[in-house]
Each structure stands twice: as structure tokens, then as C-alpha cells.
Amino acid sequence: MDASADSAACLRCGVCCFSRLETYVRVTGDDWLRLGADAERLARFVGHRAYMRMERGRCAALAVRESAERGREYFCTVYERRPQVCRDLARGSPECEAELALKKDRPG
Questions:
Q1: pLDDT digits (tens, 9 = 90+) for 69-81
Q2: pTM of the full predicted structure?
Q3: DSSP strand E in the chain: where?
Q4: Are 92 and 99 in contact (CB under 8 A)?
Q5: Would you say 37 and 43 are in contact if contact means Cβ atoms under 8 Å apart?
Q6: Is 56 left (phi over 0), alpha (psi -120 to 50) or beta?
Q7: What is the pLDDT at residue 1?
Q8: Does 86 fall in a domain?
Q9: Which of 16, 36, 37, 51 has the lowest CB atom count within 10 Å?
Q10: pLDDT digits (tens, 9 = 90+) for 11-22
Q11: Residue ranges making up the domain that contains 15
Q12: DSSP run (H or E) holding 27
């Protein structure tokens, strides 16, 4: 799959950005620095560890837009600065496939 098809598939899915767990996406010190001015708004501490904020069952950095021609699209508002764990999740990987299987009925 080429990169543009890979990206389009992720825009139609977004399942990896959904969870009811408040400690779903770990934010390291490097991630916090990379998030820059958005870190305080998008991440929070639970004990001594930081995590991306989860709002209504999805990551606070996730935006959803409706498109008449393409339907619902999911995109990360801090994609270039996203946490390392998000960077490491490759489309079509076993981890991606597990997310799809576990969350097939996620809220929109």
C-alpha cells in the first residue's frame, strides 16, 4: 500500500484514537516537549505520568469532520507532533489489526 492510500485509510478509520481508558496514550517527556504549547491542553498527569486527555471516548487531539463526498474523516490535530506511541503504530500492523478487532463498534 502506498503512503497516500495508507493515509486515506487512516482518515476513514481513526479507531486507534478511541478508548474509554484515561491512561490510554502515554506521553513521555520528549512527547510533552514536542507537543509544545498544546501539551497543557491535550495532556494531563495521572500520578507522576502524563497521558493524552480522553474526551467523550476519544483522544482530545482527534478531530472529526463530515464530508459529503467522503463521509466521516478522523484526523490528528497535532499529527506532526503526536506522541511516540502513536508514531509507532503502523497501519495494517498486528497492533492496528487488534485495535480494529477490539473497537469495531466504537462511537463516532
A1: 778 889 999 999 9
A2: 0.84
A3: 26-27, 43-46, 49-52, 54-55, 58-59, 62-67, 71-76
A4: no
A5: no
A6: left
A7: 44
A8: yes
A9: 37
A10: 888 899 999 999
A11: 3-102
A12: strand 26-27
